[in-house]
Amino acid sequence: MSEYISESTDFKNSVGIVKTEFFHFADSPDELVLSNGFRLGPIDVAYETYGNLSEKKDNAILIFHALSGDAHAAGFNSADEKKPGWWDIMIGPSKPIDTDRYFVICANVIGGCKGSTGPSSINPQTGAPYGISFPIISVKDMVAVQKKLIDYLGIEKLHCIIGGSMGGMQALQWLVSYPKTAKGAMIIATSPKHTAQEIAFNTVGRYSIITDPNWNNGNYYGKSLPKTGLSVARMIGHITYLSEEAMTRKFGRKTIENKTGREEFGQLADFTKEFEVESYLQYQSESFIKRFDANSYLYITKAIDNFDASDGYTGLSEALKEVEAKCFVLSFTSDWLYPKEQSLKIVRALKINGIDTSYANLESAFGHDAFLIDDERLKKIFAGFLCSIK
Amino acid sequence: MSEYISESTDFKNSVGIVKTEFFHFADSPDELVLSNGFRLGPIDVAYETYGNLSEKKDNAILIFHALSGDAHAAGFNSADEKKPGWWDIMIGPSKPIDTDRYFVICANVIGGCKGSTGPSSINPQTGAPYGISFPIISVKDMVAVQKKLIDYLGIEKLHCIIGGSMGGMQALQWLVSYPKTAKGAMIIATSPKHTAQEIAFNTVGRYSIITDPNWNNGNYYGKSLPKTGLSVARMIGHITYLSEEAMTRKFGRKTIENKTGREEFGQLADFTKEFEVESYLQYQSESFIKRFDANSYLYITKAIDNFDASDGYTGLSEALKEVEAKCFVLSFTSDWLYPKEQSLKIVRALKINGIDTSYANLESAFGHDAFLIDDERLKKIFAGFLCSIK
Questions:
Q1: SS3 for B268?
Q2: Distances (CA, A) of A235 to A102, A255, B331
Q3: What share of chain A is helix, strand, coil (3-state, %, to 5)?
Q4: E-assigned strands of A234-320?
Q5: Tell me, what's the pLDDT at A48?
Q6: Which ranges of chain B does DSSP label H, i.e. alpha helix?
Q7: A47-105 pLDDT per residue, tens
């Protein structure tokens, strides 16, 4: 998701102050066996919950975050936090994912850098960060870890699972891995597997990171960070999250004064800042590199590229055969990263199995990031679908 | 253009061995005054010609190359050159741009690195390469230099001007700058001005170059080159030149054995090579950095981003008011970098002025690079249009 989404909600309408919690498991010798056979442990999972779990434990909704997201989906981690969690417009009292009614859970994925075990975590065997000795993880592993968390919370069946983008992949994988454990599923702006073009964009981002001299084979913790590599990766991602229309509306060909004052660039000074969109991309990437770990970017994009919901099955419909959830698949007209055809593959695979599935291709100018935008139609879809799950 | 275009034609059917020639002008104190007021001189222009200029000098066709192109559009520069010029499929005896009939000229743009004066050229005042002391150049300056060449060759009126992508911008700018000097114009897969998204892609490429430590404020000649920065820029460009469909057909999700043998990457080894498309992008960019100068990439992409054919006019139709050429505008269905709407803006502006204009949106799976593909329909369009010019 991009910082383009700057919708802020006020404290009063939010879930208020929330504390990120940690679930610890997979201590030696009970490490988690990953889908590629490697063993990973111990594992910490950073997660947040909003609302109260009912006595019957039947009102839980699990939210999966996107590539650059984290467990902090709603409310404020402290009284002086300026922006609420990344989906605060959607999660809270009387909001579409209504915390007066539902118990909402969001966990940081493994491989991430926001509290869950990832390449920047300390490898207990060496006392140093894993770096690239961290095993390759898959979307399947991400949801396996979240299933452990759900088990730990004593929840047998979720009211709904919801995710957009990489979160949608996790929702889809959850349906494949644990088809009988969710009553509802919202699969948003995503794909059952990446196309060559989607892989290509991530490839450039990864290449840019690993060729940054500061990357240093992943051993940069406590040293100079591979900032420019990660910046470039983020810029590329960012372009793919926005539609041409949204960019044209927001920036067009507007230019700004060159504020860099970088006289050493001579005639070239305006190579770095001239069009507003140039300045914007630079600003966004500078903000991103402060909050994200380059190795996590490598591991997570690789998991996304490797993801194929039908892995181990003859096809997607066979993979989804056992699903008991009522499903909603959602795409956006201007999302050129995950165009509607990719959502329709999911819809067809679900329908072939007779699964109760709704689909919408929502008219939107905001591109891939549309699911993060404050949009009344979107809110109605969410509230309506969650109510319809019996 | 991309190396994806590997169509080779045999020697017999080509214009044979051609020598790149050089036109020298703008010696002190008669430097060329650029559109931004800076003076540049002396200027060398590398160009090639194919076929013979008629006595009346009325059979000349000027070809404009794209971002990464050069003057070598057809034939072979030596008997052992493996691949012919970049548009050999189109230019030659009995080919659509028929050298038995037409005198074809192609010149490397200024700012380039293939023989024409650019940032890698020696600044006679310092005896060292210009680097970033080279003045910012515009598409208008590129065609102004080519007009000098045409004057030097004694040609008053061109039979046709032809260009795709950045070449199309030059063709359009030629019509604005010298509206009475071409009888025909083919404007292919281009735009009258870049959108924010098109600027954004170039921005990332430039950012990637200038943040490469080897870029060294443009002073890298004779030292380590900013290879990784230029590689990343090329990879991004490359993705935008291909359609999703072309990439899917060519690569899909095919994987290859990791041939890097880079064991130091540990688990990460397959971050660099795994999917075929990853390996392909790396291979292509490695080939590109051997033949292209990073500073030229900066200057030329900036010229493209700054280009606005209506600059100095109330609009595009006013800019094209004086055009006397018969025009053909061509776009491709799968070109998502320059979608048909951008070509249609050109068509409308020409038609408003009552200019004889044809337009086609050719069904093609090859994306932006479609004009470089060996395609019978394309060849017929070219041959037919060139014949129709009276």
A1: helix
A2: 36, 19, 28
A3: 40, 15, 45
A4: none
A5: 98
A6: 139-152, 166-177, 196-210, 227-241, 244-250, 276-291, 294-306, 316-319, 340-352, 376-388
A7: 999 999 999 999 999 999 999 999 999 999 999 999 999 999 999 999 999 999 999 99
ipTM for this model: 0.92
The rounded mean pLDDT for chain B is 93
For tokens 């504020």, what's the residue?
A259
| CA-based end-to-end distance of chain A | 31
Question: So which residues of B are the catalytic ones?
Answer: 165, 335, 368
The residue among A138, A159, A160 whose CA lies nearest residue A37 is A138
Domains and CATH numbers, chain B: 21-194+307-388 (3.40.50.1820), 202-299 (1.10.1740.110)
Query: Which residue among A132, A199, A213 sits closest to B278, beta carbon to beta carbon?
Result: A199
Q: What is the mean pLDDT of residues B138-155?
A: 98
CA distance B370 to chain A (A): 17
Quick check: A250 contacting B, CB < 8 Å? yes
Average pLDDT over residues B218-237: 96
The residue of chain B nearest to residue A210, with distances taken between CA atoms, is B272
Q: Is A298 on the interface with B (CB under 8 A)?
A: yes
3-class SS of residue A142: helix
A119 falls in which pLDDT band (50, 70, 90)? very high
What single-letter DSSP state applies at residue A76?
Answer: B
Compute the distance between CA of residue A164 and CA of residue A144 in angstroms, rounded to an integer.
18
- State pTM to two decimals: 0.94
